[in-house]
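User: Structure please.
Assistant: Input sequence and predicted structure:
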Amino acid sequence: MPPHAIVARRVLTGYNDGMPYPEQFIAPMRAELTRLGVRELRNAGDVDSAVATNGTVMIVVNSVCGCAAGKARPGIAIALQHDKQPDVIGTVFAGADIEATARARELLLPYPPSSPSVALLQNGKVVYMMERRDIENRDAGTIALMLRRAFDEHCATPDGAMQNAK
C-alpha cells in the first residue's frame, strides 16, 4: 500500500490498523446484513468494484455500536423489503475491514467518517447520506422509512424505470 494511502486510512478511519475487532466478535453483526443479501466489501478493490457498477449503489458502514445493533441494521432490513432497491448493496465493517472502510470513507467525502452510516451513490458520487447523527435518535421503523424514501428517489423499479423519469 502506498504511504499516502496509509496516512489517508489513519486520518479517515481513526482506527489502529494493528487492532481490528476479532472476527468471532463481529461475525454475528456482519451476518445481520449478509443474510439479507448484502455483499461484504472486505478490501479497497471490493469497494471500488461495487461503486463502479451501473445504477444505484448502497454502501453501509457497519459498526459494533448500540445504534447500529438496535436501529441501523434493523432499519436496513425493513427498508430492503421495499419494491425499489439499490442495484448493488455492500457493507464495510468499521474497525474490522480497515482498508475497505478507509476506501469507502474516501468515496463518501465531504461527509466525515461516521459509523454506522448508509450512503447511496450513482456514478461514484454520493446522492444520499444517512450519518450516525441521523440514526442514533431514531427508531428502526423511522430509519427504514427514510431509506425507502431515498430508494424511491434514487433507485429504479424492478422493471428498470426511475421514479422521477420523464
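The first strand starts at residue 39 and ends at 40.
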